[in-house]
Design a protein that fits this description.
With 505 residues, this protein is an alpha/beta fold. 48% of the residues lie in helices and 14% in strands.
């Protein structure tokens, strides 16, 4: 018996890939034991069987192995952690209620646990449907010894499956997060931008995204990448304004050992890391003139060298840049190269500030409420009408990022089921009080016009709120026809869906 185990072990160890190891092990066990079929079955995190290896006498994979095995026997070993050996499963009292055993007409069977850290993570299963008492006590001991021998390989196979599944789930989550329909907006301006983004995603044209801080420039860059044919490769973001010139150059292009003090080894740069993928350069207007020249060369030739080296590297990356500065003004001031600007500005995307897409405030706030209620393990909180009014009249100079911070703060402080104005940051809440007390209009006519627009917008919103977003009923309540009512909605970017679905209404 020891010699048989030794010979079996030698043959199995000749394989290097885990799946091949298990295939070979089961083939050898079938041959030595006289089994008709053999399987290595692992259990996922929910306890469901994963058929890592399922083989027959001809050393072929068994199709649909889940229908070719006794679940009663497998589950029994999984629960008890004890091996099972039966000379005739059909006559065994414990199998009388087993439909799978009866359907498959299983006679001889061995099933042994695979154990790691005192936990059963899988089983080895052998059966024969034609011969009773096929597996002698010696064969049982052989299979038991071999189960101990291959348990580590089987456990590594399970770990690999779990890791692959986790990676797959993360990739799926990542891609779904940046699908166009996952970007939250009701704004017609943003809808036009997303249409443009979908059109340019699969090209390799450079994209320049402009907009104030906090408007979502990186989110748009990620949407472009994860909807392109480069989505399976890296998306590498780098903030040009966060690094000094010499360090930014090294980060972009890499360096060789000895290129400068502290360069103790060769190091790849972001162009190499992003190879085949997308390089996103935020705050590109902060790049120094000398570095602009080197960056321009890469865009023109597709070639670059590491700092301290003359060796040429090829760059296969899509370039997306972003800035909150006016690059044309920087060009006029002599701080940004005109030729670089035109290289970057093949596709230009201008993101509107949040104050120009007021209709997005309710839906974005609702999104952040869901997000932070979940993180804080709180039940769903709604925004009171008073707090909603404060949010809608605030200009949000920090844009979406400022709104997110405001909602996070409010959820942290709120103890009831609704966010009140005083739970919002003082800069937002006090701004409302200031607006109520002071004027910001140069003429009475301008003040009247603004007041009329504000009243019109609030009146239309109140009608939609009262009718739960039904436009015809809201128009009837307002005393005007539906066509004119719809024109007013369009003028103020009011979306009837906000009054049907969002908890802010």
């Amino acid at each position: 018996m020891p010699n048989q185990i030794l010979e079996l072990a030698k043959k199995v160890l000749a394989e290097t890939e885990v799946h091949n190891v298990l295939d070979h092990a089961v083939d050898q066990l079938i041959q030595l034991s006289g089994a008709e079929r053999g399987m290595v079955i692992l259990f996922d995190q929910k306890g469901e069987p994963l058929f890592e290896t399922a083989r027959n006498l001809e050393k072929e994979d068994i199709e649909n192995p889940g229908f070719e095995v006794s679940r009663t026997i497998i589950d029994g070993v999984k629960v008890s952690g004890n091996p099972i050996s039966m000379r005739n499963a059909l006559d065994n009292a414990s199998m009388k209620g087993s439909s799978s055993t009866i359907r498959l007409k299983i006679l001889s069977v061995i099933c042994l646990p695979l154990v790691h850290n005192n936990e059963t993570f899988g089983v080895i299963y052998l059966d024969n449907r034609t011969v009773r008492g096929m597996f002698s006590p010696q064969i049982f001991e052989l299979v038991k010894s071999f189960a101990d021998f291959i348990s580590l390989s089987a456990y590594h196979a399970l770990e690999r499956k779990q890791q692959d599944q986790k990676i797959s789930e993360l990739e799926s989550e990542l891609r779904s997060r940046y699908q166009f329909d996952a970007i939250i907006t009701n704004s017609p301006k943003m809808m036009e931008i997303l249409k443009l983004v979908s059109q340019v995603a699969n090209s390799d044209a450079t994209v320049l995204i402009q907009g104030e801080s906090g408007t979502g420039k990186e989110l748009i860059a990620q949407a472009i990448h994860y909807n392109s044919n480069r989505k399976d490769n890296s998306f590498v973001p780098i903030n040009c304004g966060a690094l000094p010139e010499n360090l930014l150059e090294s980060e972009l292009f890499g360096h060789v050992k000895g290129a400068f003090t502290g360069a103790n080894s060769d190091r790849a740069g972001w162009f190499e890391t992003a190879n085949g993928g997308t390089l996103f350069l935020d705050e590109v207007g902060e790049m120094t003139p000398s570095l602009q020249v080197k960056f321009l060369r890469v865009l023109q030739t597709g070639e670059y060298s590491r700092v301290g080296s003359r060796e040429i590297h090829q760059a296969d990356v899509r370039i997306i840049t972003a800035t909150n500065q006016n690059l044309k003004e920087l060009i006029a001031e002599g701080n940004f190269r005109k030729d670089l600007y035109y290289r970057l500005n093949v596709i230009e995307i201008e993101l509107p500030p949040l104050r120009e897409r007021k209709s997005d405030i309710p839906v974005l706030a609702n999104h952040f409420i869901d997000l932070y209620c979940k993180k804080c393990q709180k039940k769903k909180i709604r925004v009171s009408r008073e707090a909603e009014s404060v949010l809608l009249t605030y200009d949000f100079p920090g844009n979406i990022r400022e709104l997110e911070n405001a909602i996070q703060r409010a959820i942290t402080l709120t103890e009831g089921d609704s966010i009140l104005p005083q739970y919002l940051p003082s800069s937002i809440y006090q701004n409302q009080n200031l607006n109520n007390k002071t004027t910001k209009y140069s003429t009475l006519t301008e003040a009247k016009r603004h007041a009329a627009e504000q009243a019109e917008r609030e009146f239309v919103s109140d009608c939609l709120r009262a009718t739960k977003g039904h436009i015809r009923d809201a128009a009837k309540m307002a005393g005007i026809d539906a066509s004119n009512f719809h024109k007013i909605m369009k003028k103020y970017e009011i979306n009837f869906l906000d009054f049907k679905t969002t908890s802010l209404k």
